[in-house]
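Suppose a colleague, Dr. K., hands you the sequence of a protein chain of 92 amino acids and asks what its three-dimensional shape might be. Before reaching for any lab equipment, you can write down a predicted structure in token form. Begin with the sequence itself:
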Amino acid sequence: MVETPKIILVCVLAAIVYGAIHDQITARICIAYFTIFHPPILATKSPTVLGLGMGSYCDMGGPPVPWVLLLTMGCCAMVAGFAGLSWRLTVL
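The predicted structure, expressed as tokens, is then:
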């Protein structure tokens, strides 16, 4: 039981780091993704600032995610987890 909060914390931190790196790459590949397709939250054209700003921005005003999508994502994650586990067991 003591490991559960540690696992959750590491997963959240990994997601934050991944998102920050992903937004930095995306901002350099296509700046329009941040300047045209999202609401303007920062008055800058700097890819670094836009990537960091949009990476930390949370818009809670969007439409709710349909339960079918959440169920599909959960099932895909479970299948991927079992596939990774079976691969790991065959390697060992």
